[in-house]
Amino acid sequence: MSSTSASDPLDTCGACAGVSPQTPGIVTNRAGLSSISYRVGTQPLFKESMQARLGTLPELRTRDPGDFTLGLIDAWASVADVLGFYQERIANESFLRTATERRSLAGLAELVGYVPQPGVAASTWLAFTMMQAPGTPGSPSTSVDIPAGTRVQSIPLPGGLPQTFETIETVPARVEWNAFRPSLSVTQTVDADTTDVLLSGVSTGLKPGDSVVVAPSEPGSRPVLRTVSGVTPMAAEQQTRITLRPAISGAPVPAPAPPPPHRLRPLIALESLRVDTVPLHIASTFAAPRNWSFVTQQVLASKAPFIARADDLHILGWRLGLKLTHLFRTLAAWTPPVAPSVYALRTKASLFGYNAPDPRSLPATTTTAYKDDISTGGDWQPPADALVPLLDAIYPRIAPGGDAAPSFAALRWSDSQGDHWVVANVDGVAEHGIAKYTMSGKVTQLRLSVVGQSDSGPVSLTYPNFSSYRGAALQAESEALPLARLPNDDPLPAGSQIDLDTWVDGLYAGQRLIVTGELADSPGNHASEMVQIQSVEHAIGADGGTTLTLVSALTQAYVRKTVTINGNVTAATHGSTVSEVLGSGNASVPSQRFTLRQAPLTYVSAATPSGVASTLALRVNGVRWSEVHDFYGRGPGDRVYVARLNDDGSTSLGFGDGVNGARPATGTENIVASYRKGIGAVGNVAAGQLTLLQTRPLGVQGVINPTPATGGTDAETADDIRTNAALGLSTLGRIVSLQDYEDFARAFGGIAKALATWTWHGQTRGVFLTVAGIDGAEVESDGAVFGHLLSAIGDSAEPGVPVRLCSYRRGAFTFSANLMVDPARDMDAVLAAAQQAARDAFSFARRSFGQAVTRSEIIALLQGVPGVVAVQVSALRRTDTALFVAAARLAVLRENAQIDAALPQVGADASVLAAELLTLDPRPLDLVATWAEAPP
Question: What is the arithmetic mean of pLDDT over 820-824?
């Protein structure tokens, strides 16, 4: 090539230009570039190279650009330039690092067996409200099935579009499961020293001075006699508050013996009856306390035989004649314990002979006739057993009691030691005539027994003298005054048990519930969460009640009176079902292809290595074909197809060529597809948005999603494919090393980041996996992605290695900085660029678990913003702690050189805390800009 320029004034004809070829040029690229250079020349170089070869044509001496030959050279140089450009683009699209087109990246990934994620449909829980349809048989306890495929649509937010969800399972629902509540009251306990008692009802018939028997709650405690000092009816609450005087000392009675044990049959077979009724939910086991005795049990109806094991059921109370829906007609099975209560003594009587004349004032002839009844002191001899009293008249309302309804009597007397009393059971009542103490008449004779006999046998009491007998009085005809239940103002704790205020029939193990209420630690804020029943215990008692044991504990504590529980809960996922005819099969055409008319195809979270499963069901001539990854190893008779996501969001289906995979049979419109459409982050609707029933099963009144829909992710972008394509090669479908756990989780649909660390499960070393959802979303423990990921890991990992999965902990920070700006720049534009640079650098996508934030990192970042001359970071602090809130109120700025993000760590209760990821607080940064020097 000549060194003489074409503009040289000595070069008048231009014949010296292009004396040497310039193409093809040498292409070199260093490693690690985001794009490569692959052009062998440009238009000027191609033109120069062609002109250099014109020397072989001696007749062509001109180099005038207007010459036709040179014009043709110029045109072909342009063609070569265009070809070179596209050659470079093709070369870039041939490498994973440099490719920019999604189609290229998808093709490259497919070479190593990786199919780009098509996205995941969001999932949520739907709570249905049921109603008793007019004219339909049944009751609120009648179950109605909510079928799979029930369609619900969301109310869109401004600027949004409605999203459709469908239930994925059939569940039974009942009216009585719409909104039951936890127990809002607690059982009132009384003891010997109780001074205030709250009774149910306002017609107690008590007045100050009356005596009552208080039956304490403590096992083995005897009833005590108390005197009423005040009675306050409360009509609004339908309760009565009574005040009791302190108790006087009772008679010395030996301590009671423990109740004798009763042997129970270990197995009680109950005969099954077959009836034409709805299926019954019958508990697999029943049981009773050890000191109760089984008597009889009549079964109304059951669909299959069952055996009741007598040592499993927890009976919390008792009620005679209880009618149990669908199961028992009568239940008279155990000797019930006496519930704690207060008993009014309605009858007061004197003892026979209380008004007998003093024998010392009687004639000798009279006393001689009664000499056996006179003591050595000259007075009458008191009865030998005070527990067999003779009352002074007939008292027909005094009756003996039983185990279920005890009858109490209180005997009071005085002696030189003071006043005494004893509370006894009325075991027998007899009426007869008597002549004694020079008196005769009809009397009521009672047979009493002290509550709780001693180890040495029945207790007996005697009067010290007849004077004590004369002053003795007996109060009987006890009437139970039930204790009112006290309001339970304690929060519903974050525990694994929920006590309900009523008997809720039909609840079963595995049933899902939605618990909704005001947060106890955040007044005014309401939340909902899904829990699952592990076991159900019913209380057979006057107050009824049901206790639910949960599979996993509640995560929040709630204000009890605001809590409602819905049992008509089912899972739902984003997408609506459609059916369409794809076309006609032609067995003479290999590798037929069809495209679904509606997009996008729904993929739901599943326990597969990819984390997703298609909702597409493809049938040829009514026979379902299976989707496969590719046709490798498929035989000519295998009814399989391949589905691929196109760049426009549509899905194409490809059939085999008859060698690898079968061809669809020839027919007219014989290829039919049924699938769901709808996917992506648009399905992550907020709580309460899904309220529009598009299909209304019988008995369904309304629906809502108490919890937000989560897990919805869009199809992988080009950058996602570039990052994830090699993850499958890391594990090859098996999980062995710690890094394998991390890679497997990272490649799972709906997971954006993962960190695997070793931890200890007792004495066994296990894996603790911290995960984060797409765009920093939490992976809810009750969500589909969480459960399916655990299942998929269990299928692919080494057996016997414990694995715990937990969503990451979010951390947030902010900083303040002073920027010195180049006066040649627009200050506002520089500040905006600095804000954006910080948000990009400290976003979820750019940060890792446990990655700290340093002042030097911030300074280097801001210093790289065009227009920033100098940086001073004045404050660096967290914004996700109470310490920051307090400091902010006091305008205190904490200067930190570094903010650490926690890696998984063992908590105080031996639980493991997930790793933390620090991102920039979304609130505006405190950036102050000044000119580096005075602007001109």
Answer: 92
